[in-house]
Amino acid sequence: MSNKLELYHGSGQIVEFPEIRKTRYTKDFSWGFYCTNSYQQAHRWAERKHENGIVNVYSYTENNQLNIKKFEKMTNEWLDFIAECRAGKVHAYDIVEGPMADDTIWNFVNDYLNKNISREVFWEYAKFKHPSHQISFHSIRALECLKYERSEVINDSTVE
């Protein structure tokens, strides 16, 4: 194990014990527990989706024995991976890390997935956009890399 850093998960509740839940819709990197290295991004997730938003804070220690996929930037491989995951394809990675499309880029991704625009048009639209970070955990072994530190209620200064 190596590389320790702080990760954040925006939610409507305290998440001391993260879980992987299969939901109706898959996300960018399929079903998993999603975090980011950006406090501001987690704050937006919590604020946008929950009346009483909470930012959960974890220390993350990377385990190099796990099957980890990292996308350093938006590439054709990243776009194809998202397309497959959104279509329901299951992958064998414990952890996937990479760019997260903001709402604007996500609209372009949807247009691409729905064949309303070509790959070339997607990249033309996306080239001036700057995605944020996401890391998703897809196995129990992956979740063991996270250590719950604290939760912060975003509507006031309460810290638990």
Short précis:
This protein is α+β, with helices and mostly antiparallel strands and 160 residues long. It has helices spanning 39-49, 76-86, 103-113, 119-126, 140-143, and strands at 2-11, 33-35, 54-62, 68-70, 95-100, 132-137, 146-153.
Topology record:
Layout: E1 2-11, E2 33-35, H1 39-49, E3 54-62, E4 68-70, H2 76-86, E5 95-100, H3 103-113, H4 119-126, E6 132-137, H5 140-143, E7 146-153
Parallel strand pairs: 4-5
Antiparallel strand pairs: 1-3, 2-6, 3-7, 5-6
Coarse structural class: alpha+beta
SSE pattern, N- to C-terminal? EEHEEHEHHEHE
**Distance N to C terminus:** 28 Å
Number of E-type strands? 7
Biggest sheet statistics: 4 strands, mixed
The unreliable regions are: none
The number of helical segments is 5
- The whole-number mean of residue pLDDT values reads 88
Count of structural domains? 1
Shape: globular
Beta-strand percentage?
25-35%
Radius of gyration: 16 Å
Task: Record the strand order, biggest sheet.
Answer: 2-6-5-4
Question: Roughly how much helix do the residues carry, as a percent range?
Answer: 25-40%
Q: Can you walk me through this structure?
A:
With 160 residues, the chain is of the alpha+beta class. It has one domain. Helix content is 28%, strand content 28%. It has five helices and seven strands; from the N terminus they run ββαββαβααβαβ. The chain has a four-stranded mixed β-sheet with strand order 2-6-5-4. It has a three-stranded antiparallel β-sheet with strand order 1-3-7. Helix 2 links the parallel strand 4 and strand 5. InterPro entries: DUF3990. Pfam families: DUF3990. It comes from Dorea ammoniilytica. This is DUF3990 domain-containing protein.
